[in-house]
Amino acid sequence: MGSHPSETDVEGEPGNRIGSAPPRTRAWRGGKIEAQGFPVAKVSDYLARPDVVVWLDLCGPRHEDLRVISDELGLDPVAVEDAVSRHERAKLDRYDGYAFLNVYVPQVDDGELVMHEVSAFLTERAIVTVRQDRGFDVDALIRRWDESPDAGLGEPNAAFLLYGMLDLVVDLQLEAVQALDDEADAVEDLVFDDVFPVKEIQRRSYRLRKNLAALRRVAVPMREVLNTLLRRDLRVVPAPLVPYFQDVYDHTLRVAEWTDGLRDLIADLLDTRLALQSNRMNEVMKKVTSWAAIIAVPTAVTGFYGQNVPYPGFSAHSGFIVSTVVIVVCSVGLYLIFKRRNWL
User: Which range of residues forms the domain containing residue 96?
Assistant: First the structure.
């Protein structure tokens, strides 16, 4: 398929840089690369050809940066505002002649979940991706397009490019939920560890529940996005690509179900932690009570023999012997009884 410029390359024609990184452009014709790295202003020139599909990627653009491509594709100001605004919900909006898509790419780094927002404008023969930062690896997306065994670009349409993007996004969501699953296993090991570090369990379980809630907020709406794309009356996805999008839809269901399952697992682990903590407290109380009972015997005996009144053995050597024997026999007897009942 040929080489493509890296995102870190800053060389290019004057006026071809938008946002925090240079734009990425590519045009296909008949399923083969026609051109790439061309200026944004030439997008309309390639789209004027009836058999060319165009992709444009913008990283960290501002509202005025999108003015050029907005004029090129005739984008609605509301859609442009959504593309440059942060923290939009995952959604698919239909406009006259194009669709606007907003999704999130999760990344787990040292137990912390980071979200990278990615938007896209989709027309019949063009797709414009808008990234808020460089967290989404666009080179991986290009490799997925280039290495696909079935390019699906024999006819001019951008649906296959959209499929590659959504497939990559959902795969990254699966990787994120897998990482959170591994974290849940680590928390489970801590819960059943003999050391039982309570503060560590509380900290990691809280962070895990927060990450799962954040991932669920961006994963569940993906079902609605795929459902809308697969609607026959909208005719967004060509019939040959329906099985591909259906496969992505199945993966979105897996992400949502996996996330819900992990949330239930963490809730069960917290309940188990409380139960184990209560059981450990009961064990400690049994031991403390047992030792208190054993210590009470010599206290009672010495207290009895410490009375200032005459009693059998008072001021006699035999009294000391009797009291010592009573203390030893009763203490050892109580220890053996408690040990047999696993109270010590």
Answer: 1-154
